[in-house]
């Protein structure tokens, strides 16, 4: 099953000259780690890597058992969303 933790503040590959990973444009903005790539589960962001990894493990297991329920589903009515966003 797919699913991984992405560091949004540093690039994936190191710089060839320095051997260090470079900062992205999102450096210092928002939550650093994002869990993505689980079919049927929306991406979710976390402050720490440990939180992201533990949530990923739980989401994978629940998704496998077909028991995953995203608590954010249904948190806003469609009419409210349209009024706020459009």
Short description:
The protein has 86 residues and is an alpha+beta fold. The chain contains 2 helices and 5 strands; from the N terminus they run E-E-E-E-E-H-H. It has one domain (4-85).
Order of helices and strands: EEEEEHH
How many helices in DSSP terms?
2
Number of domains: 1
Coarse shape: flat
User: Quaternary state, please?
Assistant: single chain
Q: Helices and strands: which structural class?
A: alpha+beta
What number is the mean pLDDT?
80
- The end-to-end span amounts to 36 Å
Explain what the structure shows.
It is a single chain. The chain is an alpha+beta fold. It has one domain. 28% of the residues lie in helices and 22% in strands. The chain is built from 2 helices and 5 strands. The protein has helices at 49-64, 78-85, and strands at residues 4-7, 10-14, 21-23, 33-36, 44-46. The strands form 2 sheets. Strands 1-4-5 form a 3-stranded antiparallel beta sheet, covered by helices on one side. A two-stranded antiparallel sheet has the order 2-3. It is flat and about 50 Å long. The relative contact order is 0.18. Residues 1-29 are annotated as: Disordered. This is Integrase. It comes from Streptomyces chisholmiae.
Question: Keywords for this structure?
Answer:
alpha+beta, 3-stranded antiparallel β-sheet, 2 helices, 86 residues, two-stranded antiparallel sheet, 5 strands
């Amino acid at each position: 099953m797919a699913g991984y933790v992405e560091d949004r503040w540093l690039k994936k590959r190191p710089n060839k000259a320095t051997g260090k990973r470079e900062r992205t444009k999102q450096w210092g903005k928002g939550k650093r780690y994002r869990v993505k790539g689980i079919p049927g589960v929306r991406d979710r962001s976390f402050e720490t890597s440990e939180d992201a990894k533990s949530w990923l493990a739980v989401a994978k297991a629940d998704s496998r058992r077909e028991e995953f329920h995203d608590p954010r589903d249904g948190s806003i009515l469609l009419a409210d969303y349209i009024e706020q966003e459009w």
